[in-house]
Structure formats: C-alpha cells, structure tokens
Known about the structure:
Number of strands: 9
Number of domains: 1
CATH superfamily: Aldolase class I
Order of helices and strands: EEEHEHEEEEHEH
CATH class: Alpha Beta
Strand order of the largest sheet: 3-1-2-4-5-6-7-8-9
CATH architecture: Alpha-Beta Barrel
Distance between the termini: 28 Å
Radius of gyration: 19 Å
Amino acid sequence: MSYSVKEIFYTLQGEGAQTGRAAVFCRFAGCNLWSGRESDRASAICRFCDTDFADTNGPGGGKFAAAEALADAVAEKWGHLEWARARSLIGETLSPRQEVSGHDFSRADAFGQGTIGALAPVTFTPHSPRAVRNKVPGTPYVVCTGGEPLLQLDAPLIAALHARGFEIAVESNGTIAAPEGIDWLCVSPKAGAPLVQTTGNELKLVYPQAGAEPERFEQLNFRHFFLQPMDGPAREVNTRLALEYCLAHPRWRMSLQTHKLLGIP
C-alpha cells in the first residue's frame, strides 16, 4: 500500500512515559475522529485536537509508494544527526557514508560547545553496515502518530522500520486494533469513540472529558496511566483539575506537553 504522511521530523518526545527521549516523529495524515478541517471541528467526535495532520505538505511529508521508501525517509532523519553525534562521542573521524545507528541523543552534554543547528549534514545510507553500532549505545526510536496512525501502519512498514534498527512507538486513539510488532503502544481514549485496543504500554487520557472519566479505564491492562490536561482556553483550570485528580488517585500520573514548554516540535 501507499502511505500519506503529514511530516517527519527529529525532536524529543514531549509527553507520557517516554518524555525527553530523542525520536523521529512520523505523523501520518488522516484521522477517523476528525477530518482536520476547522469547518468540521464542531461536528467531530474529537473536538479538542491540537495537531495539524491534514494533507501531506509538512516538512518531510508526502506520498510514499512503498514501506521501504517511508522507512528510508524516517532513517534519514535519525541518521544525519546521529553521525555527527557519534563523531563527537567516540572521537574518531568517520566517513560521511559510514552509517551510525542505535544511538540515544538524550545525553546532550556530548554535543560539547556546538549546537544542533551547526552540525553539518551528512549522507545517510540505510542499508550500509552498521560501522560503529557497538560503540554508540542506544536504539533508534520512531513515534508513529497522527491523526490516527493505525489507519496506515501495517506489517510491511513495521518490518521495514525494524530492519533499519528502529524501536517503534505508536500513539493511537484506540479505535483500531494494533498490529503485531509494535514495541511501545500509547492509547489515548476519546469520549464518544469505541475503545477497541484495551491493552498497551501506556494509557494517556486527555483530561477532563465528559464521558471519558479516568475510572472507566483504570482496570484495563496498561502499565502506565497518565492524565494530560486538555490544552486550550481552559488549560490552567484543566491542569489544576488533573493535578488534584492525580494527588487523590495515585495510580494516575501527570503528563505535561513539555515540547510546548520547550518550544520544539
């Protein structure tokens, strides 16, 4: 099948259990709970979405005819910075065509006095030998998000991403059963939508939602349970309500959108 992608970018995960982890975000176009058009928001099942997932016109976005092509585009976003990071970390001169895979960028001190923007771009060859994999710790990490990524994420793409060394995370609204092979599954239920996927690594509930109260989900088979204050005009009130709920119900933890606080994608 072909894949419609809004954008592909490198950043830090800003929410939930993996907050602060370096990741390539692959944002798929389309959702089954809202069209993404403001003219349709009032009649949508999910009316509070803060993400632009319509069309394929974002950075790195486009139509990808095959899983291999999309996996290569994801790997390229990781590989450009990774080669420069590995060069500073292990103190060796590497050819720009040597692939470096499997590095965790969360140790920002290794950048020395330079900045991310100052790092020179390099050529990434996804199928070349992993020349310094054993010298550079960590695992490449991709977050498949949307919109609703499970409308498009399939077995061939999962296999192609795994073949390039990626740990695969998915952020889903839970209305579609997840395929096999996902390494980290985050489900974010929405009021008024059927919850089909009732197991995973973390359940992240935007709060408050009438008809999606936390007690409806706390017996499901997830390792982590997060409340995330709903953004928008009532953000401060919603943050206080989420804080109070977590204090009164310690099973739930607070998730903040730290990427917004940091001013990163």
